[in-house]
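Regression test attached.
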Amino acid sequence: MTEITLIDAINQALHYEMHADKDVIVLGEDIGINGGVFRATRGLFEKFGAERVLDTPLAESMIAGLSIGMATQGLKPVAEFQFMGFSYPALDQIINHAARLRNRTRGRLHCPLVFRMPYGAGIHAPEHHSESTEAIFSHIPGLRVVVPSSPARAYGLLLAAIRDPDPVIFLEPTRLYRLNRQKVPDTGVALPLDQSFLLREGNDLTLISWGAMLRETLLAADALLQKGLSAEVIDVATLKPLDCDTLVFSLEKTGRCVIIHEAARFCGVGAEIAAQLSEKAFFSLKAPIQRVTGYDVTVPYAQLEKQYLPSVERIINVVDQTLGFA
Amino acid sequence: MREVSQSSITYSNFLNAAGELTQSLPSFASQDALISLYQHMLLTRLFDLKAINLQRIGKLNTYASSLGQEAVSVGIGASMDKEDVFCPYYRDYGAQLMRGVKMSEILSFWKGDERGNCFSKCENDFSICVPIATQLLHATGVATAFKLRKQKRVVVTSCGDGATSEGDFYEALNIAGVWQLPVVFVINNNQWAISLPLDAQTHAKTLAQKAIAAGISGEQVDGNDVVAVKFVVDRAIAKARVGNGPSVIEALTYRLGDHTTADDANGYRSQDKYGEVLQQAWKEEPLLRLRRYLFEKKYWSEAEEEQLKKRYHATIEMAVAEYLALPKPTITDLFDYHYATLPADLSEQRIEAEALFRLHEIGKE
């Protein structure tokens, strides 16, 4: 079996589920004949045709509203927003309708749909192509927010997202799209949508992250190993609903925790995790819960994005402070 | 220079304000059909008056009236098949009632009870959409599903004149045009979007012409003439059903009441400036003209009217009683409909909320 990238794994999951379930419809801008700007949907148009792979006009609110209408009829739209920064015109439809329809009709109508979007900085993209605003979606009752960080998890989580009967925001870290390869058996086995993944076991502290920042987080853990310290590394993976149990379990073991995300710090998902951990694991804490995040500034253009994103050094610096508490 | 595009907007009317025919009636307009249209409008009017009354005595929260909008809504309701889908805005009780939505459900919605959207006898229609124009996109999505599945079903969606300034309005018309979707957009142009009159909403001569930019047909109809509304909606639905694409219908009406019961139109629609316009609008309202016509033709009489009103009052009172008897929603309803399966974190909050509520109830005993 050949090893595939994260973007290949997404493509593989889409192929699998479109083949398995004729109600799955893929739609978005440039996703058909062009196969998507990142090629996530390549080959689908040729294989499943123009009736199931819909190239849409350039209108994000329309893509969302249309998907909602389709979903109420039992179709399972998997819509792509070209970049997270272009999803904002659709927020009205996502927040006011997709997230609420089941609740406001007391279950009569619901929205089995997925909004996929490439997100995050670090690929020298133009302005508005580097957003990491997962907190906006995570704040909204009725949504699920999922972020894969490896080819295998991208495959299993996307399958789960498509099969879920409720709206899922599926955030794809562009920096990881082609960074690593992995064998991903095309078995159609989904991963759970409400669980975090323990990537590495350790005893001295817990590193919590998701998406592209897991790369730096794992490198920081490697560096710690060289100093004889073992870090437990957790991929949160599903930001909403949050699998706090896995995080608490780890913190009860290590007593120390650093949360790493590339989104701005203020009201970031890290703040929610820190709050929940301080509520649920207070007596296990040997040090304050710390965060290494993007600064509270607009995501910079390409020239400064390296300075904006948490680096391995910044992580280690904060980890050292955390370990320094007696 | 040469002309590359030409377009025009037509206006349809059969019955004028005096209840006289302006052209011969369409073939569907038998005596029975006309009486039925009138009866549905009357029921809608009486229900609406009751709802306003309930709000005034504190038994309903903010309510949006359909006064003067009955012909548009009943025209839509009379044109649609049961298996079609309706994505309404909030002045379409006429069509909703005809399609099986219960009065008690409409009242529950306006009492702040989500159960009012869980239609027991109209399972496929969307419930009233509060954000403006967003429902037009849902309609295009439903229509896409029908088209992909090769079903001969049609979606009708409605909005007000204010909605035609929203981005979603244009995005909906655009996709409906490009994909030739089986959808009919009905704009209830009642001249007011809360306090904003039409001339401050748009510089376009008609709202129907907005369809032309999307490459789809648009037309105006007298929205106070239920015969004309049904005639044009019938035609648009028939066209959509055979795969000939979407239509935009601009129905011209006048909002006779306030925007909602929380609004006082006198603040922006003064007697000084709008007194005559309002007086004229009352002369043009939809029930009056059809009643005149029916009376004139001896299809309908004062006695039948009184008898029917009595029957409708009884129907409405029964519905109100049913609505008032509905037990309050329970605290767990807060949580139970957000996801197909309650996530663990929400389950924790549910348990906590229920326990606190019970404790509070015990404290009161």
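Expected vs. actual: identical. Chain A touches chain B through 48 residues (CB under 8 Å).
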